[in-house]
Amino acid sequence: MKTILRPAVIACAIAAAFPCLSQSTFANELSKLSAHQPTEDKASVDRVVIKGDKPTSLPTEIPTTIEGINAKDIEKTINAIDAEDALKYLPSLLVRKRYVGDFNHAVLATRASGTGNSARSIVYADGILLSNLLGNGATFTPRWGLVTPEEIQRVDVLYGPFSAAYSGNSVGAVVDYVTRMPEKFEAHAKLVGFSENFQEYGTDKKFSGKQLSGSVGDKQGAFSWWVNINRLDSDGHPIAFTNKLVSAGVTGNAGKAVTGAIAGKNPQGQDWWLMAATGQYHTIQDHAKVKLAYDITPTLRASYTFGVWRNDMNSSVESYLRDAAGNTVYSGDVNIAGKKYTINPTDMANSKNQLEHITHGLHVKSNTKGTWDWELAASLYDYNKDIARAPTVAIPSADAGGAGRVTDGSGTGWNTLALKGIWRPNAEHTAEFGYQREAYKLRTLVSDTTDWINGAASKRFSAFRGDSELNSFFLQDAWRINATWKTILGGRFEQWSAHDGAISNASTTLAFGTRDENYFSPKVAVAFRASDELTLKASLGRAVRMPTVSELYQGTVSTQTIVNNDPNLKPEKSWTSEWSAEQSLNDGKGLLRATFFHEDTDDALYSQTNTLVTPNITNIQNVDKIRTNGLELAYQNSDVMINGLDLAASVTYADSKIVKNDKFQKSVGKWQPRVPQWRANFVASYRANEQLTTTLGVRYSGRQYGSLDNSDSNAFTYFGFSSFLVADLRIRYKLDKQWSGAIGIDNLNNKKYWAFHPYTQRSVVAELKFDY
């Protein structure tokens, strides 16, 4: 047993005190290591060692729980179409993916952060920041489209804000994608088809799509290169439904008599009519990426990444309403069951998006393993083109064009710079330090147009702008006290500024004030290796999550004044801790982990109604205090009971409550929105032989609430946040050395569940892959 464990611990980037964990790969990787014959398996080495030739955001010393999955296990266990699918079964994580290719609402939720808190996690790919920290919410999701499943080599997830190397946005988790770089010539092609039968309210249709991906790369001496292209063509099910409260109707005979409206209840239990399915997105996404790397010396590598992501989206509407002659009704005054309702032209509206986002990444890193090493990383994410179009006239006239508005986000983006160093004065200490800069720029211009489909922008309707910048210095030292004790001490000083904010209506532009503030966040971790099989560790860290520009520069223009704005909006300040016990199982093939976590967050940022002022104001405000206590259990084991059977499971309990909120007293004592009390995942994968693998995955989430006062008691409806229990199936067969095929079913039990919008119902996925 000792001969297996000790080299594994040495190989891990954080040594004995913090062994690297992997939700589905740890046991396999650990079993391949031996004291006298270290494995040369590339996937294994890359998983447990932070190598200098792999661009990554991860620090060398990791003072926190880490989970992950590699390419082999993604291919074996997950029906992966989008990059976020790789996170599907990792403990405590949930991505709010509504349909294949969901580009603007797929928020990552973590232990104590829900799917409305996109700014409480950070996502990187090859050291490039993908998280959209211009705002916090459903429309500021990570730019998942800049990574395709076929290029992923591994994904690592760090839980909590315990590393000084990350900003306060890491309070939930840090996700790090590392994509492939070849060691020799290789080429890959993959074709995927998928189809969903969707039944909800008055909609009963099939929605399908396809994806084609290809990549090629080579390494010739010191130079290596990689090219990946991908096209996704997806018809998504409707995600929104036009509705009117029954109580809003005016009793009488006025309005056009219509049939087809669906009776239901909203999340507050009020009766309403569902009149149409909207937001049926037909999405075509193109992805292209070029990666170049050059070994300047055997211990110094430079790499460059250029990526382009394009998205063309057209949404359509399915009205349920019919008049007496059977004609479809889209707008105007209608009469349903003796009451008149007014359907505005934009209640059932089409829309179009044309996006082209570009990213650059530069990474230079030394890997001498000597006294000094250093690293330089820089990235740029640019909204080169970001156009959204919508009509202001009703269907069907809008189908031919007509008046509308054009929203132009061009010029929006962010850039990052990191300078890092590693100092190893002796065998007991490893110090990491550095300077980091992040700059964000948000630009939005809404203009009127005479033709919403193709017309040019004319008169300004509204505009918004704002910049923010974060300059940080960090230092942490890992001290191996002796063979059984290790500690990591660190701190992060951050200088934050927000400036050049302005908001406009059609005729007036008003500027916001400037903000400059400084914060310090200490970090500490201690680990005790009780035996070769058991490790105990504890971590504590402070995180300060700065307001994003869209949260800070909120409001509207009224009579030459900015209203509904809080110029003194405070950052979120969290103290997070975790205590873990990790037990090796099955002669090193498995691992059982128990982690208790606690988080106190002061001044949490939420949209709420301030009841202390008259009239009441609803906007982004500070919630005084939210407290979360929880327990996470994670298990993985290989060759359980029989050879070829691998199991992985996790269960998370979170008691997350609002404990103080003076502005909205009704929320005190209620559950934090979108954080369920229970989450669980289970994956069983069986390798019948070298050709055939079958996998069953199960995902569970308990009841959630969407409102701070938990008034949304009816969860299984549009706007609701429901529990779910879904099963996924995947069967993969390797036809020969180069060809493989797979078929899978997501949501096998066809559970209908909601996170404001409906999730995907039962879907079939089939793929054919070629590897050379």
Automatic annotation (TrEMBL):
Coiled-coil stretches noted in the UniProt entry, renumbered to this chain: none
GO molecular function term, any single one: siderophore uptake transmembrane transporter activity
InterPro entries linked: Beta-barrel_TonB, Beta-barrel_TonB_sf, Plug_dom, Plug_dom_sf, TonB-dep_rcpt-like
Signal peptide positions on this chain: 1-27
Ranges of residues in domain TonB-dependent receptor-like beta-barrel: 301-748
Gene Ontology biological process: siderophore transmembrane transport
Domain TonB-dependent receptor plug: 61-174
Subcellular location: Cell outer membrane
Gene3D superfamilies hit by this protein: TonB-dependent receptor, beta-barrel domain, TonB-dependent receptor, plug domain
Record's bilayer topology term: Multi-pass membrane protein
Keyword line: Cell outer membrane, Ion transport, Membrane, Receptor, Signal, TonB box, Transmembrane, Transmembrane beta strand, Transport
An example Gene Ontology CC term for this record: cell outer membrane
Database matches in PANTHER family: COLICIN I RECEPTOR-RELATED, TONB-DEPENDENT OUTER MEMBRANE RECEPTOR
Protein family per UniProt: Belongs to the TonB-dependent receptor family.
Name this protein carries in UniProt: TonB-dependent receptor
Organism listed in the record: Undibacterium baiyunense
